[in-house]
Amino acid sequence: MPRQTATSSAPGPARRRGPSMADVAREAGVSGQTVSRVANGKTNVDEATRERVLAAMRRVGYRPNSAARALRNGQFRSIGVIISALPTFGNSRTLDAIAAAVVPEGFSIILMPVTRPTQGEVTGAFSTLNEQAVDGVIILIEQHQLDQSEIELPHGLPVVVIDSSARYDYPVVDNDQADGAARATSHLLSLGHSTVWHIAGPPQSYSAERRRKSWQATLERAGRVVPPVVAGDWSPESGYQAGLRLAADPEVTAVFAANDQMALGLLRALHETGRAVPASVSVVGFDDMEESAHFWPPLTTIRQSFEAVGRHAVKALLAEIETGTEAGEPVLLPTELVIRSSTAPPPA
Amino acid sequence: MPRQTATSSAPGPARRRGPSMADVAREAGVSGQTVSRVANGKTNVDEATRERVLAAMRRVGYRPNSAARALRNGQFRSIGVIISALPTFGNSRTLDAIAAAVVPEGFSIILMPVTRPTQGEVTGAFSTLNEQAVDGVIILIEQHQLDQSEIELPHGLPVVVIDSSARYDYPVVDNDQADGAARATSHLLSLGHSTVWHIAGPPQSYSAERRRKSWQATLERAGRVVPPVVAGDWSPESGYQAGLRLAADPEVTAVFAANDQMALGLLRALHETGRAVPASVSVVGFDDMEESAHFWPPLTTIRQSFEAVGRHAVKALLAEIETGTEAGEPVLLPTELVIRSSTAPPPA
DNA sequence: CGGCGGGATGTTTACGTCAACATGGACGGC
DNA sequence: GCCGTCCATGTTGACGTAAACATCCCGCCG
């Protein structure tokens, strides 16, 4: 394997080491240290000198070398985001929010995607990739096989987990899943439905479990019978399959789907089987995707703020990086019921 | 918080410099160089020594410092992705594909989100953030105010643009937008519709323009009248508004929406105004989102492979990084017509 | 008018890694 | 048994930056 080197001999890829401070210094007729001072905006530099250095920088096309800088300061000014299922609605939104929150702080984001959220993959995401190249890590993984006892992180690396599981001993940020599911269920109950069916997300997902339990608890608190759970996997297709089964049962008048995508599949199944929504069956989703307002009929759903989750996660992580102290309490963000046209009182 | 510091004095943020090769070397009773050799899997190390070093590494929790490594070899083994509108369906998919393609090569991804795709922001994304911290850059920006004459990139930094615009002098990869739009339009024509209306994406988007032009060209080639373009902005809401206008015109029997989200809004408008789909109006979308198969009715659409785009972009970029030569021809990936239930012959 | 303070600037050094060169011991050929 | 070779290992230095310390010059005060 003929790897190329930076030395003069190599005929290959032409390692383009850009101009360094030394080059700028020579060009401006000052010492490297003065260049460094200018580059870092220190005040104790004569105005004329500063101008001269700035001009020299421009002339030679100087760019600070972040590797050298990181080596020197022991800080990378970047955070890692370990993420699975990136294209997912919630995850991509959250990632975007994280990115937006992190950039103004002068940090950058290193993506560490894992194809499947197994322990090995996650642990590997740390060591294999950027072990030391980040100042902190945000973990955004939905199916948390992650067991804190097994996951092995370098001690002292700040970590924030986006998940409402309490199983970690890292700071945790998430939307309040239980709160949302309770709102959805109560809404249907208050419309007069005698009970509410539920299409659940995959059992490995903590969020899914949380929603399911809260739905069940709400029903029980109201003294209603708890229908058997219909299993889904977040996908529209699974919602469709579940919907086909539900639609066949005339008892079913209200369904709470654990996310909007499954609600969409459910709506399709209801249309196909001639059950009118909301006249015959009411439907509530969860997420409030941009599309949901334009489903047919427009979907009543639970809005959660991925933006807020991202912002809080970054805030907690940066605080930990700066101060060295872990944020204490888990952060649970409130959700909101958005009423549209897919819910109504049950048929008379 | 008994955080450990390397230096005794500093009371600040607690620089937790991890153990270095020197520490491992001391622990194992060898020189730093031998540790380096073991860490890099060189062969010329005695088996017993290797074991001893490995054990020492484990004991002290050694992790290679990527900053020092990058400084030393002048390579970062990471690529930057400048991206706007991350949560967008296509972009998040593409990003995921890029990530997946890049990881097995031992590269990592640095995200550089830009909130608005202006020149300044994009240029800033380079300099402000990771100027020297990446070996190459993929630009994934839909509204390309980017004018190559103004955008100022460090010379010699490999760049690949994901966009079918030919305006860049960087290698370009994208789905074949024109091909897809032609398929959509032809499909409707072949069903017997006399012409096809179009809800376009925002004019700043090259993809949107490409689709619009191809739709128009296809109509003209077939000798049909070209109805006025209805302007949208990719959002379901804009599709809905456009749909309201279109639905009022009984002439309209076939509509090609420039993406699935607008098609969704259109479907809703059609339902609300009592125009049956596909009996009265046929609809074709573009993208084939996961949801589209479960729209009501299931949407006929153009599938594009974001995965392939991501893969090709990475391939081109890595090739350029390794060899220093730009990939020549733009890569245009073929699209596919997916026929579902939203299209049919026009009403008799 | 000499010394002192302070601001501007220069010099040295260390951050962690790895290529290049140096060393040193074992082994084989004659 | 002597020398050349090869292989394991050690030593040195450089990558680009910035903190710490050193120096120099100027003006001001006693």
Features:
homodimer; 348 residues; alpha/beta; six-stranded parallel beta sheet; 11 helices; 12 strands; disordered N terminus; DNA-binding
Describe the structure.
In chain A, helix 8 links the parallel strand 6 and strand 7. Chain A has a six-stranded parallel beta sheet, with helices on both faces. Chain A has helices at residues 21-28, 32-39, 47-60, 66-73, 89-102, 119-130, 177-190, 206-221, 236-247, 260-272, 306-323; strands at 78-84, 108-114, 136-140, 159-162, 172-175, 197-200, 230-231, 254-257, 282-284, 301-303, 331-333, 336-338. The longest helix of chain A has 18 residues, at 306-323. By secondary structure, chain A is an alpha/beta fold. Chains A and B meet through helix 4, helix 5, strand 2, helix 6 and helix 9 of A and helix 4, helix 5, strand 2, helix 6 and helix 9 of B. Strand 2 of chain A pairs antiparallel with strand 2 of chain B, so a sheet runs across the interface. Chain A binds a DNA duplex (30 and 30 nucleotides) through helix 2 and helix 4.
- Share of residues in strands of chain A: 5-15%
Mean pLDDT of chain A: 87
Largest sheet of chain A: 6 strands, parallel
Number of E-state strands of chain A: 12
Low-confidence stretches of chain A: 1-14
Describe the oligomeric state of these chains in a short phrase. homodimer
Measured as a percent range, the helix fraction of chain A is: 25-40%
The first-to-last residue Cα distance of chain A is 77 Å
- Rg of chain A computed from alpha carbons, rounded to a whole number of angstroms: 27 Å
Q: How would the global form of chain A be characterised?
A: elongated
Number of helices of chain A: 11
Biggest interface reads: A-B, 74 and 75 residues
Strand ordering within the main sheet of chain A: 2-1-3-4-5-11
Order of helices and strands of chain A: HHHHEHEHEEEHEHEHEHEEHEE
Structural class of chain A: alpha/beta
